[in-house]
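Backbone geometry:
***
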Amino acid sequence: MLLDKGLLESEENILDGDKLRHKLESALPQARSRITFISAYVTQSAIDWLSEFKPKNVDAYIVCRLLPSDVLNGATQLSALIVALNKNIKVLCLHSLHAKIFAIDNEVIYVGSANLTNNGLKIYGTGNLEACIKVPGNNLNLRFIQNILDSAT
């Protein structure tokens, strides 16, 4: 194991994908108004995971890259996006996207390398070694997220 889990307890420390998933699992059920997940890639296991923790009365947005090559190589699964839409999660596309941002109620925001995928969040199996950090929900960060939403189709 590359990381000592005991070192990852503070909000100021870098989180791996597993720790990020645990933080999101704690925050998601507390969401009151909006969830925005920005991730170049999206897979079915991640949508199933999100659906398990997302409150029903909360608006949810996913922005993904959705290039044809992403779908052909399996990095993004169209079936996952269809399931998301069927679960009233709004799906947007931004072909230049590479950012990975997880925002809940404009208060809890994580930024890093983890995609909304099984490997990014270590939903099961070993997954990727990711690096993410919590950032404040200040006006600049919220404007950055809103600009991505406004740029997406």
Residues 1-9 have pLDDT under 50 and may be disordered.
